[in-house]
Batch of 3 targets.
Target 1
Amino acid sequence: MEKTLIILKPDCVQRGLCGIVLQRFEQRGFSICAMKMEKLSNAILGEHYSHLKAKPFFPSLVRFMSSSPVVLAVIEGKEAVEIVRRMCGATNAANAENGTIRGDLALSTQYNVIHASDSKESAEKEIKRFFRQEEIHSYKRALEGLTYSEDELS
Ligand code: IDP
Ligand code: MG
């Protein structure tokens, strides 16, 4: 089953929005298969945002992302990378569609609530960057009461 990495950013943690953001993924049918709170170091943020090192906002992004603990989680489910990314909405929250996490909860480009891996390759790398294999768990979502065919489980 496909996995992707999300980071609930310092603005999400400090505004008390972690619960409702995680709820959206659970309600969609995804599983949270790993989760922890951590204060990220400049070193790991430099690696995580290495594609943005040349940008003028890079120092401020690292300061922001290390300003308080964040919640890191691995989200698992059908087409998790693409669907989770779509659920987050555009980077600049002011342009994010209503109904997306950023479109419903933020207005800023930097303080945009959540990070999500942008491809299957980045998801694989990012999950390894933040989680050890033994921190990632596997379980089935309860589907009692639903009538479904075997195909619907894939
Ligand atoms: P993404 O988070 O939607 O994948 P990226 O381009 O990978 O967007 O940028 C990573 C993060 O850097 C953004 O989520 C945002 O917090 C910050 N960021 C991106 N562009 C800007 C900008 O123009 N000004 C300030 N911060 C930015
Ligand atoms: Mg990105």
Target 2
Amino acid sequence: MAIVSAKEMLTKASNEKYAVGAFNITSVVQMGAIIEAALGKNAPVIIQTSVTPARFLKPEVIVAVFRALAQSVSIPICLHLDHCTDVDFCKKCADVGYTNIMFDGSHLDFEENIKRTREVSDYCHNIGNITVEGELGTVSGVEDQIKVAADEAQLCDPEKSLEFIERSGIDLFGPAIGTAHGVYQTENPVIDFQRLGKIFQKLNNPDVKTPLVIHGGTGLSESTVLNLINNGGAKYNVSTNLKYILMDSTFEYMSGHPNEYDPGKLDKHVKMATKQRIEYWIDLLGSTGKAL
Ligand code: 13P
């Protein structure tokens, strides 16, 4: 079966110094495009949903479509719940078949973040092969229901990261290092690569135990992306870019075909635009050909 644990997939990426694209979706058309692109590139891939689309489409529906599409392909693939601040909804998504869950306690104090993340970790690990992502420090910008102003964002303290991971029981770690959700307000955001490298060394020396996650993947220069991977990023999250592709390709098609009422043709156009963009990301992240 192609469906694997995110930890297994990302430990390999971390060891071999490439990153796996983790793409946020709001529609089944996007899910199909991502799987087709990854299959064509023979690349591992992670599909993720934020909480609002997961509640809107229903976790059971997302899991059913994911399984139907993912089971028939040979590449490693995961379904991840992104930035969930609600312990009960994390458990619900784990129950119905998400393979990876992120509890986002970054807005809480250190002890409370550990306590609630631990509850999610224990629950998911008891079910079986479900891995858990946690976050320390805060990523600025807007991601679904989470809004953090740039001047309120706090970077992850490398000295606290090992304690956080050991006590919270997480499998994947998203440290705040200066990347931001949404569209960057400046062309050259200040990203603390050294901090990322230090955290990587603390957690993964000599062996990779806790792969690192990069949030805020849209809008960074290609050299920044490669630098993030060199310093230990193994899961690379992209959301805003795919929202833009979805909306722009929809507007483009509709303005070019104002009298056409065939949604299938519109879906095809959006799917192709999304697929091309995913192929770009897979190549940039270095995961092309890494499915085995
Ligand atoms: P962007 O919206 O900046 O691509 O960030 C995505 C992300 O980090 C989702 O968790």
Target 3
Amino acid sequence: MKLKVAKFGGSSLCDASQFQKVKKIVDRDPQRKFIVPSAPGKRHREDIKITDLLYLCHAQVSHRVPFSEIFKVISDRYHQIAKELSIPIDLSKILLDVEDQIASGASLDYVASRGEYLNALLLAAYLDCQFLDAADVIKFHEDETIDLTKTQKEIESYVQNEHRYVIPGFYGSLPDGSIKIFPRGGSDISGAIIAKTVNASIYENWTDVSGFLVTDPGIVPGCRPIKTITYRELRELSYMGAKVLHEETIFPVLEAGIPINVKNTNEPENPGTMIVSYRDPIDPPGSITGIAGRKDFTVLAIEKNLMKSDISFVRKLLSILENHQVRFEHIPSGIDSLSLVIKSSELSGKLDKLIEDIHVHCKPDLLEIHPNMALVATVGHGMAYTPGISSKLFTALYESGVNVRMIDQGSSEINIIVGVENKDFEKAVASIYQAFIG
Ligand code: ASP
């Protein structure tokens, strides 16, 4: 039988009514064999995530400040869910044990992981599934990188039987048995690793949005959802600011060619977005997949006669950036000119000295500083090899009165990046959307 891994985020499991929705989703499809929960998230804007409360408990203990009041808030959340749904589990003893461990100075990783651990116990009892501790199956090497071979070996024995399993997200264990967590938001990564090691037909990532939208609905209200997107397109969009999944989620499943389906627990009938390794055919040719962008970049435009024949020019320039620990985003270049596109925050307190060093060591004929720039990336495999894409894009920008200050197509052919002034950012995104999607 084909099997699916379904990861539910914190908002999908924040209270009893969300637990009920998750049960309906899981029960509807017997292929959903491995269920990976996050810790309970926020129920409303001012609420605090369980994981954040656990971090707080750990901080209190390390400062020798009592933490029992905070811990009570945590216990109450779990008790309330159990009580409202009459879940046949008594968490009191387990909670007491966790509290004792925290009090006696348990590691931060252990403490932070308990949100997922407790939630998975609760969910397993509610769904009438087997609980499988992530510490027993998700294995790290001593150097704290994930040990996929060992993880696969541990998990394999659970694939063939008829049970359904709930495995807490966010953590695993080191060779000495101690708990090791992933970076924040890392239950996404746990789900992806499990999907890869059990060779799932699909990795479902259940959250509170119905997948990705073509662009920011704050800029284009009612904008279209993305039905299918490739991993590469998603990378291009997410580095520009569109973010739903943890960045490291993609890699385990990418290698195995397992699609990720981002779905909404509150709207389960919506197909959401399917993230796939490749898309063929792309219909219609010339279509775009998404538009993302960010404000607040600074462009340093450098001109020097015969720049191209000075073989050391770029090296000198990049060493200056390295010396000042300044990272750049893009370097579009012409015959005798080159621009450095840098996040303005990277330059704070460093700009004057950096400019001085460029003058001293690179001796440019002209060095202009353009602050307050925004980058807009238009991404899509459908754009590659399709004539007329750039003319459509630049005509749209021209017609809406946006001044394009920089262009960078990169080498991927699936991404055209334009630099515009911050004040034109929203207008640029909206006009590109209008031209390609309508
Ligand atoms: N609960 C963890 C966090 O808040 C992990 C996760 O939700 O994915 O970061």
